[in-house]
Amino acid sequence: MNNEDLWKAVLGEIELSLSRPQFITWFKDTFILSNENGKVIIGVPNGFSKEWLENKFNTNIIKALKNLQENITEVSCAIYSPQEKPSRNIDGAGKNNQGDQTVNLKDTKVVTPQINFFQNTHLNSRYTFDSFVIGENNELARAACYAVSQNPGTQYNPLFIYGDVGLGKTHLLQSIGNEILKNDPNKNIIYISSEGFTTELVNSIKNQTIDKFKNKYQQADLLIIDDIQFISGKEKTQDIFFHIFNSLYQLNKQIVISSDRPPSNIQILEDRLRSRFEGGMITDIGNPDLETRLAILQTKLNEKKFFLSDEILRFIAENIKNNIRELEGALNKLVATFELNKKNPTIEETKKILSSILISKQEIAITKKDIIESVLNFFEITKEDLMSKSRKKKVALPRQITMFLFKKELKMSYPEIGEYFQRDHTTALHAFNKISKDVSGNSKINGDIEYILKTLR
Fold first, then answer.
1. 44 DSSP β-pair partners
2. CA gyration radius for the chain?
3. Quick count: other Cβ atoms within 10 Å of Cβ 433?
4. Which pLDDT value is given to residue 19?
């Protein structure tokens, strides 16, 4: 296995443990510069990435590398210039797997080999409609995205796509941009995560370049914002984004947004923004069924020009059900291990290689702590708020939902629930009855509870 394939496999494993914005922020434009005598040097584009990879992700990187190449003992990072172009295809920048002579890093021009990003757009050229596997879970979302790519700004504007992590939202969003660029390379397309948008905004305020920041986004023909839920509670970001949104919308420029939940379930979001998001088309991506998961695995195998038996593919698809990113990560680990060790793919070896992933996917009993953490994260309050005597709606509703889930999911008695919250059992009974009634008649509360339950499972 050469350094390029090794790093691809490592990225596939690391991506499983990070959110998409985190992964893009810290691992975009990284690759293996050198791999010699158990020491690996990772090429990074700047000092910020170097600091984070060495201090925050070093353990993750070493663990992933050792799973694929046992002799690795040390990982460090070196900064390279992203503007440089490779003069030839290099297997890393040190000794390659065939034992060639060491390449002088100072004289070598290197760019990241594993991911193609269109200049200035942050679009990954791998994400196209042709490479997207269609199933019942994503058919409507895919059709809406394709329609937008053919007639941007004229229908489904804005287009709002939501669904759990790792189901293909980013793939579809970037497919829109790539399709539009294919039809008209002169289109000004901006793809960015909401966290990236906020970071740029903060920097522009600090550098007193806020007008330049606004102008950049207001000149977009297509604006794609990934993971919009992270602007929750950020008042200045919401205010600026609202004005950019209005400016683009009035000019019939296309806006595409993704989130892990529908607009109605995003907490601490200005009503005027929620109204804008709900004014276009909203579509969701659900969990893929078995047939879709098998089709995804086969598509990825064809891209890798690697063969695995139907038995092995079915084993993977039956054991990793709810996340396409995890599905692809497991496949990458499997292919990389078989290629590295030059072993014939068998179901026994597959079970052994994927054992750590499958163990982590086994169902774990839900606890009171799990429920409380999910409720606190969703409503963005503290445990002190939850346990307090406050009757403000901002606190009372999360407390009642917690009591409801204690009863429904943990089968706790009303006296037990009351004792936990230092209240009478009648308070717990009232909370359960109230939320039960709200669930059947209030679509927003029902959606909130469904999302909290998803995070628990």
1. 79
2. 24
3. 12
4. 64
Strand pairing report for 281-285 and 159-163: parallel
Assign 140 to helix, strand or coil: helix
Q: Where are the beta strands (DSSP E) in 390-440?
A: none
CATH number for 139-285 (one of 1.10.10.10, 3.40.50.80, 3.40.50.300, 2.60.40.730): it is 3.40.50.300
Architecture of domain 3-107: 2-Layer Sandwich (3.30)
Q: Which residues pair with 283 in a beta bridge?
A: 161
Pick the CATH number of 290-361 from 3.20.20.140, 1.10.10.10, 1.10.8.60, 2.60.40.2080: 1.10.8.60
Return d(Cα 27, Cα 205) in angstroms, integer. Answer: 26
Cβ atoms of 75 and 42 within 8 Å: the answer is yes
CA distance 16 to 33: 23
Please give the pLDDT value at position 277: 93
Q: Contact, 110 vs 33, CB < 8 A? A: yes
What's the pTM? 0.60
* Mean pLDDT per 10-residue interval, the chain, length 457 residues: 87 77 75 89 79 79 86 86 39 36 34 42 85 88 93 91 88 95 92 91 93 94 94 91 94 94 85 91 88 88 84 89 83 84 82 74 71 89 91 91 91 89 91 86 75 76
- E strands present in 394-435: none
Separation between Cα atoms, residue 222 and residue 253, nearest integer Å: 6
Q: Which of 42, 28, 43, 48 is nearest to 109 (CA)?
A: 43
Of 40, 46, 70, nearest to 58 (Cα)? 40
368-456, CATH topology level: Chromosomal Replication Initiator Protein Dnaa; Chain: A; (1.10.1750)
Question: Alpha-carbon torsion 191, 195, 200, 201, what sign?
Answer: positive
Cα–Cα dist 141/257, whole Å = 12
